[in-house]
Amino acid sequence: MQTLWQDLRYGARILLKKPGFTLIAIFTLALGIGANTAIFTIVNAVLLRPLPYPESERLVEIGRPSDGAGAGALNEPKFVFLRDHAQSFEAVAGTQRGPDLYLSDESEAEDIGHLRVTADFFRTLGVAPAFGRGFTAEEDSPAGERVAILGDGLWRRRFGADAGIVGGKITLNGAGYTVVGIMPPGFEYVGPPDVILPMRVNQASQNEGYNWTVIGRLKRGVTPDQARSETLALFDKFGAIFPSQYEKGKVEHRLMIWRSSVTADVQKHLWILLGAVGFVLLIACANVANLQLTRAAGRRKEVAVRMALGAGGWRVIRQLLTEGLMLALVGGAAGMTLAVWGLDAMLALVPNGMIPRVEEVSVDWRVLVFTLGASLLTGVISGLAPALQTLRVDVIRNLKEGAGKTVAEVARGRLRGALVVAEIALALTLAIGAGLLLRTFANLRGVDKGFEARDTLTFYLSPRGERYDTVAKMNDLYRRALERFRSLPGVESAALTNQLPLDRWFNLPYMLAGQSKPSGSAEYRLISNDYFNAMKMSLRRGRRFNEGDVVGAEPVIIINEAFARKNFANVEPLGQEVYVCCGERGDLAMRRVVGVVNDTKQRNLIRPADAMVFIPTEQATDGMTEFALHAKFVLRATGAPLALSEAVRSEMRGLDPAVPVDGLRSMEQLVGRSVAPQRFYMSLLGLFAALGLVLAAVGIYGVLAYGVSQRTHEIGLRMALGAQARDVMRMVVRQGLTLAGAGAAIGLIASYALTRLMKTMLFGVSATDPMTFTVIALSLVLIALLACWIPARRAAKVDPMIALRCE
After folding, report:
1. Is residue 770 one of the residues assigned to a domain?
2. How far is CA 740 from its chain centroid?
3. Mean pLDDT over residues 354-360, rounded?
4. Residue 112 lies in a domain
5. 141 and 116 together in one domain
6. Does a structural domain hold residue 740?
7. How many domains does the chain have?
8. Which one, of 616, 564, 561, 613, lies nearest residue 450 by Cα?
């Protein structure tokens, strides 16, 4: 310990004697360690930290995959069968995130989010209400009493944390509900719910919509593989009993650990980001190692004296490693500070809903251990190379003034060059990854959306209460609102729909004439007559909706080209009969196809257009209340769309001040939100690549500048013998470009192998796109050339007489 303390004191004195070197090294390491800590903090919260429920490792999700990599969802009949027959689970629960509800009383009204759950939800999660109780089986049935459980946030905000509300009544969408419980503080299930309602499971349901998220708690001693085998066997048994509802071999089912299922869509991307930022740390290590090697060259006489006085090689190595670790630990502390400061900024860039559990991101013991480990590893990596070089010190030659280059110094120069080559290779790999994401982002922005987003204002109205308790009353409000909006100066056209493109989707089954079961599912849109004009969509055949398409007239629909291709590839779609949903219970009613419109992107810009069904608002019935509740308005403007915001609010205050205007934004903002994940990944990887390129350029500059200073005598001699300034510049630049070329070659090979991991993040560009590889490689060489030019220019200005006198 005495020796260690001595090493620490001596190392501190040495570092303080060279404040410039020390600050540059600490800053470089802080950038690398800080960036790694920030990304690891997100990875830790999202992928590594257990879910906030007791024994959460026993929680699994069961479903049929759709778009994502998670478990997917089930329909109601399969959930009921699984719940009643599975033996591997302590409890199984089904859930649904419902649309906003209207909570009202005599003094205040507001929209609140709600969650629907089955009776075993709380037993499955292992969480009970803080006050009151959960739901009973009777309440979780179609004829069950209207009951509700309040979230802690809503309970404190709206009811003043009064436990006496348990047993009392609240009004949701105009109907009375009895409060039976209040959830504990901090409870979350895909976010904190405002209110939880029973699912009201129908034992005899034949609803084939796959929209139930199903979770189960494994019995102790039951492995996920055992539960998976039983579950798949049960679904086969379900198919044998109900052949009309299940086709064996055509539907894949999954059982996944719940934490893995929740994060499946972002898991690979986050690991790629952590790997990319790890490259930045390696580049920082190489830079600091180069600094250490340069400093070691200046300390060779000191090391020779220490060894001449009896210090062994290990003693000197330990001293230098101690200095490297001190640098790294201080850099790690600074990096931790940078990470904490930068984490909020990074999380602000995360698109809403893109990364699950992002609200749980915080610094915990795992993050602290990671930062400490990264600091120690960085200290060893950056200090090991210069420390090992001391074993090759020639004591006698270094004690002599003016001794020439030793073998160790030549080897040290080669090692510095090798480190620069590694830096360039790592930086090039990062830059190519960022370039591919930039190409992806550009491709997405150029995708044909099927509608015109420019000059379009969107917002929504949510009329609630007794004045709007029927679809007819809501339609009357919408009709009068549209008339007012169309009369506003600067408004070219106005329309409404229940869901906007790239916002949310509403997928429900349909059935073709002559069939006995649903043919598939489609996106349902309730629209006003002028919707296609407002969105600049094209009518391919048939007609648009008109004033005659009202309740009592023939029920009609318009379909898109994707629906026509899927169902009427070889027949004329106009005039065909299609049975579509006419209410929340999933009942189907016949409507006739009167038009076909172009395809539009709905879920995102990557996914092909879904089959769509358009229904006129004037033919909406009271069974379609859930559709009509969500009125999204579209105003086509002649100028800046957001400039209409105050005029829209003013018109609604004049029409009905109790119905607020919410969600005012341009359609271009919605389009921007749809590419936000790609923008997020591109921004981060681009930042890491830029940082890597700067560090690599600094590395080249440092090596060449040091080389020029060591070769001053040689350069002066060359120039005295007739060498021109351009010859000297060419010599130095050639040395730098040789290092850059070697690094670029290695980086291209590494990129060819590693960018294949990014395939799922790309769109419209190959993971080995030749143009991206070529442009990025040439750009890096130009950056390297600039880094070479400064020391080359300095070398060309060497005065031969001064250089020859220097020794």
Report:
1. no
2. 34
3. 84
4. yes
5. yes
6. no
7. 3
8. 561
User: Which comes out higher in pLDDT, residue 149 or 350?
Assistant: 149
DSSP state string for 201-223: --TT-------BEEEEEEPTT--
Contacts of 729 (CB under 8 A, 6+ apart): 789, 792, 793, 795, 796
Same domain, 240 and 293: no
- Nearest CA to 61 out of 182, 190, 183 is that of 190
Write the CA distances from 36 to 263, 280, 378, 379, 529, integer angstroms: 20, 8, 12, 15, 54
CB-side exposure of 582: number of CA atoms within 13 Å?
16
Give yes or no: residues 295 and 352 share one domain: yes
Q: Which residue has tokens 């800046």? A: 640
Residue 402, both tokens: 């003016």
Residues 102 and 166 in one domain: yes
**Over residues 506-529, mean pLDDT:** 84
3-state SS string for 311-333: CCHHHHHHHHHHHHHHHHHHHHH
- Helix/strand number for the chain, H first, E second: 24, 21
The Cα 77–Cα 205 span in angstroms is 6
Residue 571 lies in a domain: yes
Helices 264-298 and 19-43 cross at an angle (nearest 10°) of 170
Encoded amino acid at 244, one letter? S
**Are 33 and 72 in a shared domain?**
no
Structural contact between residues 645 and 457, judged by C-beta atoms closer than 8 angstroms: yes
Look-up: residue for tokens 């002559």? 514
Asked which of 373, 404, 435 is the last residue of a domain, the reply is: 404
In terms of C-beta density within 10 A (0-12 exposed, 13-18 middle, 19 or more buried), how is residue 358 classed?
A: middle
Tell how far CA 367 is from the center of its chain: 20
* 91: β partners: 217
pLDDT at 806: 53
Last residue of a domain, one of 659, 682, 710: 659
CA distances from 4 to 7, 9, 310, 324 (A): 5, 9, 18, 14
Tell me the percentage of the chain whose pLDDT exceeds 90. 45
Q: Is the pLDDT of residue 403 over 50?
A: no
* Cα–Cα nearest to 618, from 479, 518, 505, 739: 479
Domain residues for 492? 463-659
> Is 218 found in the same domain as 72?
yes
Please tell me whether residues 555 and 651 are part of one structural domain: yes
Shared domain check, 216 and 135: yes
Q: Which H or E run contains 630?
A: none
**Residue written as tokens 């027949």?**
571
Smallest Cα–Cα separation from 117: which of 69, 155, 66, 83? 83
User: Of 417, 286, 432, 428, nearest to 788 (Cα)?
Assistant: 417
Kindly state the tokens that stand for 722: 């007739």
Q: Can you tell me the mean pLDDT for 189-196?
A: 89
First-to-last C-alpha distance (Å) of the chain = 44
675-688 pLDDT, tens per residue?
888 889 999 999 99
